[in-house]
Amino acid sequence: MIPNFKAHPWHGISAGEDSPNIVNVFVEIVPSDTIKYEIDKVTGYLKVDRPQKFSNIIPALYGFVPRTYCHNEVMKLAIESGADDVTMGDHDPLDICVLSSHNIHAGGLLMEAIPIGGFKMIDGGEADDKIVAVMINDHAFGHFRDISELPAAEINRLMHYFLTYKNLPDEPAKCRIQEVYGADHAKKVIEASKRDYSEKFGG
């Protein structure tokens, strides 16, 4: 008899059979959450990171691509984009937000998404890319294939969240967005993070 077990969301699930064109996403938080959850890297369970102190609620599903890691390869892409103050990746799985018109009530789930672009975010000298994707077959967003096709208001809403969610009202910005990139570069970031994962944890 095969014992039941739960695969670790980071290490026990692939990035997707057709990645980087379609990727698996482990969703940690959803737009209705007033608490920021994140994966516990040891156990694989969701844990409370911190309550959200202000009204900066994530405007999309948010999580990471399994079997990715952001270090030297991801850092190189940031430097190629002109970020001359970057010294490393953020040593975390690759972040991804997924646009969907559906009201998903809680994280801790797995879904497939199509990367359409992303933000080259620099946080305290660390490359901290945020991939933007759409949920497969979503009625409102599923047909988009590049971030340039999104309404500007949707892009600005995502950018505003990532630029402000760590800040107190009277604090200077702790991070910046070096560039907004399209689907082709997003796929390069995904592949780079997969190489960083293999270098760190093995194939």
From TrEMBL:
EC assignment: 3.6.1.1
Q: Which cofactor does it need?
A: Mg(2+)
Superkingdom? Bacteria
One GO term of the biological process aspect: phosphate-containing compound metabolic process
Q: Which InterPro entries match?
A: Pyrophosphatase (IPR008162), Pyrophosphatase_sf (IPR036649)
Does Hydrolase count among this protein's keywords? yes
State any single GO MF term.
Answer: inorganic diphosphate phosphatase activity
Keyword set, alphabetical order: Hydrolase, Magnesium, Metal-binding
Q: Name one GO cellular component term.
A: cytoplasm
Write down the NCBIfam families for this protein, in alphabetical order: PRK00642.1
Q: What is this protein called?
A: inorganic diphosphatase
Q: Which organism is it from?
A: Chryseobacterium taihuense
